[in-house]
Amino acid sequence: MSGPEDDDDPTIPDRQVPFHAPPDIDLSIDDEALLDAPTLIREWAASLEEVDYFVLLQLPRDPLPDEERVREAWRVFALAFHPDRHRDAPEDVRRASTLVFQRGAEAYHVLQDPAAMRSYVEQLGATGALRMTHEQVQQSRREGDRSRAQDLVHSPAARAFAEKADEALAAGKLEAARLQLQLALMREAGNARLEALLRDVDAQIAAHKSSR
After folding, report:
1. Residue 51 lies in a domain
2. How far apart are CA 57 and CA 48, in angstroms?
3. Cβ neighbours of 42 (radius 10 Å)
């Protein structure tokens, strides 16, 4: 899996960056060990096959993060795990930091693209697969974001409400759009893409209220 573009790579400053244990993973280490970078790097490396991209970059899934938040999460992650920061560490720590950094770059490669992120969320819900291949990412990009509700539903009953949701979104009527999306989901429960669009609308409504 290729990493992000070169101009997205963060610089590696001299200042120390705090390390955090992988969320939702029981590392069985005490508070003193939490301050031990080599220990945490080893534990992160050992946990890679148990965490999804959101956990890896410490990003929320509800609501889905925007591109700016994904970019910032990647920079924080890269500052902590970039192999250049650990070139004087023991060999196993250097190898571990490289593995963790590469997986983080893979996560960023997926989550920084809205279409790929939506496909990844759908994949998590459908199969539980924690990783996407390069081919899957490219396919999701070819298909586009498909952010129109009517493109995300399958049944005629849900489509009627989805079309009304699209009309409301085009008019900037977020509350009306949310209601129509909720009604569409009642007719098509479990539609992961529709649920993701509803979360996005909820996030827009919350952001609008907080800015008042």
Report:
1. yes
2. 12
3. 20
Q: Which residues of the chain have pLDDT under 70?
A: 1-36, 142-147, 211-212
User: How many residues can be counted in the chain?
Assistant: 212
By C-alpha distance, which of 176, 69, 177, 165 is closest to 114?
A: 69
Closest CA to 158 of 170, 166, 147: 166
Domain limits for position 172 = 149-210
CA dist 34 → 13, 18, 31, 106 (Å): 21, 10, 5, 25
Give residue 53's pLDDT: 94
- Position 19 scores a pLDDT of 45
| Interacting residues of 125 by C-beta distance below 8 A, sequence separation 6+ | 192
